[in-house]
Design goal:
Elements: H1 2-61, E1 72-73, E2 75-81, E3 87-95, E4 98-102, E5 108-110, E6 121-125, E7 131-133, E8 139-147, E9 152-160, H2 163-166
Antiparallel strand pairs: 1-7, 2-3, 3-4, 4-5, 6-8, 7-8, 8-9
Length: 174
């Protein structure tokens, strides 16, 4: 009889130790999962930035016309070839926290996605604006990628000189 009580006591002690161990590990597991989620969100923000910035830089760099005046605002018009081989005007602009591209035929294509909700990634123009350019100088692109649920922001800024501006297209070469 005494043996049964000792085995029961040993079992209860083992259960208590396992429970204590689980209680110590759960906060670590929770913080590990939270860090993993923050890392995934940061990676997604950076991936979105990279694709968006690379596309904008390429199109602005290959702009076929010199800007008449300095650019400042949340939209940028550039000229490029159309599907028919003629030149058309394209426009980058911000609409409802998303970057969009208006094609030469007035169709609008989203560049940063159309998904909305708590998992949405918002595209916010930089301060004071998304595009800035002093006449004849580089075009500065500045924006923030924001994740609403995590409250995470990533700010991005770069500059690019359009070829037409750099080579002074249309002017006499001396």
């Amino acid at each position: 009889m005494r043996r049964k009580g000792v085995i029961l006591l040993d079992g209860l002690m083992a259960l208590f130790l396992i429970s204590a161990l689980v209680m110590m590990v759960l906060p670590l597991a929770g913080s590990w999962l939270s860090a993993l989620e923050r890392g995934r969100t940061g990676t997604k923000l950076s991936e979105t930035w990279l694709v968006t910035m690379e596309f904008m830089v390429e199109k602005i760099m290959k702009n076929r016309h010199i800007a008449a005046a300095g650019v400042r605002g949340n939209s940028y018009d550039y000229r490029d070839f159309t599907a028919r081989g003629t030149e058309g005007t394209y426009r980058f602009f911000v609409d409802r926290e998303k970057l969009k591209l208006q094609l030469y035929n007035d169709n609008v294509q989203p560049l940063t996605g159309e998904y909305t909700g708590p998992e949405a990634y918002a595209f916010l123009p930089g301060r004071p604006s998304l595009f800035r350019q002093v006449e004849g100088g580089p075009v500065t692109i500045s924006f923030t990628m924001h994740h609403q649920m995590m409250g995470m922001d990533r700010d991005f800024e770069t500059s690019v000189i359009p070829y037409a501006e750099f080579y002074k297209k249309g002017e006499v070469y001396e």
